Amino acid sequence: MRCPFCQNDDTRVVDSRLTEDGDAVRRRRSCEACGERFSTMEEASLKLPFIVKSNGDREHYDESKLARGLERALEKRPVESGQIDQILHRIKRNLLTCGEREINAREIGELVMNELREVDQVAYVRFASVYRSFQDVDAFSDEIRRLQAETVRGRQSTRKKAVNRKKN
Fold first, then answer.
1. If we measure between CA atoms, which residue out of 119, 115, 125, 120 comes closest to residue 146?
2. What span, in angstroms and rounded, lies between the C-alpha atoms of 167 and 109?
3. Domain boundaries, given as residue ranges, for the chain
4. Taking 90 as the threshold, does the pLDDT of residue 117 lie above it?
């Protein structure tokens, strides 16, 4: 690594630490020639896939667009901004590691709905109503019934696990 102060090629690593999210390494370096210290960040160079929209257009992944959609769905809901950041981070990580050059916007919508289902069911229904373009009240009701059934199954599974733990 070249020293940013004197342009010398001979620098050494003094300290290395993972960043908070564990996705990068922060290295503290020292220049052998001038003695100045500086920090560098090292992270994997992965490329985000192109997003293929329903009309066939391709565009770059735009996290701010996704964040706006999440914020609209979560408006006036008891969800902290840190949780929104975590959702965005998980979706981006999923896209970076999927190995695809292109991904349908529909798949990203499904990822968002899966995340919202876990965080806030009202926000999930809000997002799903726009994303899936519910045409009438029946489609909306069907989605709510599906969500209720999943919630009941989840509770039953949790109870079974608790009973099994007590037995053991």
1. 125
2. 41
3. 11-43, 50-133
4. no
Q: What are phi and psi of 6, to 5 degrees?
A: -115, 0
The H or E element spanning position 14 is: strand 11-18
User: Which residue, among 68, 60, 6, has the nearest Cα to 33 in the 3D structure?
Assistant: 6
CA distance 163 to 157: 10
| Alpha-carbon span 73 to 130, nearest angstrom | 9
Phi-psi region of 127 (alpha: psi -120 to 50; beta: other; left: phi over 0): alpha
Q: Are 63 and 51 in contact (CB under 8 A)?
A: no
The pLDDT mean for the chain works out to 85
Tell whether the model's pLDDT for residue 9 goes beyond 80: yes
Look at residue 81 in the predicted model and tell me its pLDDT. 85
- pLDDT above 80 for 140: no
Q: Could you tell me the pTM of the whole model?
A: 0.60
List phi, psi (to 5°) of 151: -65, -45
- Chain centre to alpha carbon of residue 33: 42
Triad 143, 125, 119: Cα angle to 5°: 120
Which amino acid, 54?
S
* Tokens 């192109």, residue located: 50
